[in-house]
# Entry
Amino acid sequence: MRPVRLYESSIPSGNAYKISLMLSHLGIAVPVTELDILADPPETRRPAYLARNPNGRIPLLELDDGSYLAESNAILFFLATGLASGTPYLPDDALGRARALQWMFFEQYSHEPYVAVLKFWTLWGGLHRKRPDEIAIWKQRGQAAIDVMEGHLGGSAWFTGERYGIADIALFAYTQSAAALGFAVGPRVDG
# Structure
């Protein structure tokens, strides 16, 4: 199965960026359909899109067999493992692959819900309508995640060993804008 189309947002999305970056690394060009997630209702919540992805989120990868794959980190994993020739973006050993998944789960549970959410409300409006305690939690927990990343990278350039891989891509997508949002990003994460 090969990717044939990427559905993403008309506004910058770190989750969609992950997929575009990985496709670029692999030298795979596919048409992109940008969906307006700020429309009322969002294009991702309309029947035609929900038929492709009942969760109504982006990114979504369409495959040449007519199937669809959702969730950015699942798509990254598929692209790193699902191509016949294999790729260098996932460690070769079972523990290394599990550690890549560990960091990708960390990104979705401990990092993205705070850094990405603060980014969305800050850049696309509405932050003034959020409660101060909500914003404080996003900042505190987002900073905690970035600090964990900084600590882990103490002796390594990459999250899962000697080479750049899908865990690095997953964590880079929203971390690249964290400093502009007021997070303290250390030299190991920033470098």
